[in-house]
UniProtKB/TrEMBL annotation:
InterPro entries: HEPN_dom. Residues 11-120 form the HEPN domain. It comes from the Bacteria. This is HEPN domain-containing protein. It comes from Desulfoglaeba alkanexedens ALDC. It holds the Pfam family HEPN. Signal peptide: none annotated. SUPFAM superfamilies: Nucleotidyltransferase substrate binding subunit/domain.
Amino acid sequence: MDKHEILQYWIESSDTDFSAMEHLFEKADYAWALFVGHLVLEKLIKAWYVHNVGINPPFIHDLVRLAEKADLALSEGQKDILDTVSTFNLRACYDDYKREFHRKCTRDFTKKWMDEIRGMRTWLREKLPKP
């Protein structure tokens, strides 16, 4: 695959995950909705990495570190959002964190963070080249 195809792969994969996130929220599967929301942003940051740095983004799930490696300039507020969203990856994956995380993921908590994810997604999509 060439650079454009790799870039499109990350964007399209993120779009697919975005739809899944919305569906999971509708079905009240809040913890998994936030886990997938993390993937939405991770894939868009990896698309930025491909656009801005090179075709092989690092295998990093910490969104702030990934953004730094991608030379993606973030405000402190955006860093705070990505830092919190990064925890959704860890907490949804590992059994010892799952119970606590599932209790925390009320409808209101999840809606708040999905709104933050949507906002970051919009911002990232606007920065990326159009197909």
